[in-house]
Amino acid sequence: MISHRPTPLLRRAILPLAMAMVFASPVLAQTEAPAAAAAPHVTQAGPASVADLAEGLLGAVVNISTSQRIKGGEGQGTVPLPEVPEGSPFQDFFDEFFKDRQGGGGQRQVQSLGSGFVIDAAEGILVTNNHVIADADEIEVNFSDGSKLKAELVGTDSKTDIAVLKVDPTLKKLKEVHFGDSDRMRIGDWVMAIGNPFGLGGTVTVGIISARNRDIDAGPYDDFIQTDAAINRGNSGGPLFNMYGEVVGINTAIISPSGGSIGIGFSIPAELAVSVVSQLREFGETRRGWLGVRIQPVTDEIAESLGIKEAHGALVSGIIKDGPVDNGLIEVGDVIIRFDGRDIKESRELPLAVAESPVGKAVDVVVIRKGVETTVKVTLGRLEEGEKLAEAEGAQAGEEGGPVATASLLGMTFGELTDEMRDKFGIDPDVSGVVVTEVADGSPAAERGVTAGDVITEIAQESVSTPEDVLDRIAALKEQGRKNALLMLASKTGELRFVTIRMD
After folding, report:
1. Residue 418 pLDDT > 80, yes or no?
2. Buried b / exposed e along 328-353 (16+ C-beta atoms within 10 A)
3. pTM to 2 decimal places
4. I need a surface site. Which of 323, 327, 430, 451 has the fewest CB within 10 A?
């Protein structure tokens, strides 16, 4: 699995200015391009030339320059070293250049470079990546003709890594490009990337769509287009065009052990970007739909145990407290196979489908419950409110944000140990933890003698007090490669025992 955390392999295509200082040279000014470029003839051997197409688009693609003032000091606040490909002829230069500049006092200014593109010339609206402008004190837009304009931030979305900027359109005549239909793009279709690699200015590269629907663990809504069109540091936020000059993706990340392109780049699909950009322009923030469930994949084993012929859909493993379905409409153990007319083949498709739906919309959700398909009508809440609720109550966010009231895992359904649960199972007041309310026949938990009314007090020698604690602890053990989970259980009267439950 590819980590979304900064690693030598998965890299954001953003470039520190110091590297741009070395690699960059004056870029020839571009002449004013025609209002629209005609689509070139495409043969089976690929496009004969993209010169006309590129000429008509270069003027709408910009370089984004940001600066951030940070405090220097002994052991902290130092200017971060730019990553230079191993063996680069400039490696010695960077080592020497920065060696004497670490650990100094006072205030320092860090600059970085990325790419972006104009989508509304009349309003002066541009799109780029959130990580290009994150924490910036100043944002400057550099155009292909050499002119520059200061930009203000309209809104950002860290979950999809999209940011919207605005410049004053009265100061310069702008050229715009438009989003196309990324859903119609097929593996093997030709695409063209334009951006600012290594600070070199408007650079055109051509390739094909290598894959679609890539999940690279960069965020909750990963659905990337993969391309072999060369994307390097500094390309972040730049557009990926189809052969009709329409933006079908926003270039955002690469896989590379060296920092340079090896032909594996990723772009946010236009279909996802359009709705996010629209909300940022209108509200300055996103307003996503929220179903209020925690989910997990449906494996072949789970499908067999639930009596489902084919492993598909999203298994509901938890219901978010005070969420839209915390009323019995959807239950733990349900498998969601269709949302608002959209088939859910894999669990990761559900959060994306829900997030793209308007807040307050009443949608039909088809679930398989105890082997029978059932349709329920759910009115969506707002994801951001669920996340605020989780933060206010000091709980970690679930799949969609919010504290978990009940959950299901390893064949156990468990919930908060409330007074009602104590009365129901006759649990002593001195017992604390998470109460098991149901155990599936033949499940790993049932094999180890776990029964309804048992209370989970510890997992791997760490105490748990909420259903979410249980889910998070089991998830952490799986990430560590553990095959079994050690649980300390309390009986109704408080007698303790250890059980080991298989997690595979």
Report:
1. yes
2. ebbbbbbbbbbbbeeebeebbbbbbb
3. 0.66
4. 430
Q: pLDDT tens-digit profile of 378-412? A: 999 998 887 776 555 443 334 455 566 778 888 88
SS (H, E, C) 119-186: EECCCCEEEECHHHHCCCCEEEEECCCCCEEEEEEEEEECCCCEEEEECCCCCCCCCCCCECCHHHCC
Of 395, 420, 438, the one marking the end of a domain is 395
pLDDT, mean over the chain:
81
Q: Cα 383 to the chain's mean position, in Å? A: 15
Active site residues: 131, 161, 236
Per the structure, the complete domain to which residue 149 belongs is given by 1-286
Residue 404 lies in a domain: no
> Does residue 208 carry a pLDDT above 60?
yes
Question: What H or E segment, with its residue span, contains residue 278?
Answer: helix 270-283
Q: Give domain status of residue 405, yes or no.
A: no
130/37 same-domain check: yes
The residue out of 395, 426, 441 marking a domain boundary is 395
Q: How far apart are CA 127 and CA 328, in angstroms?
A: 41
pLDDT at 459 over 70: yes
Whether the predicted pLDDT of 101 surpasses 90? no
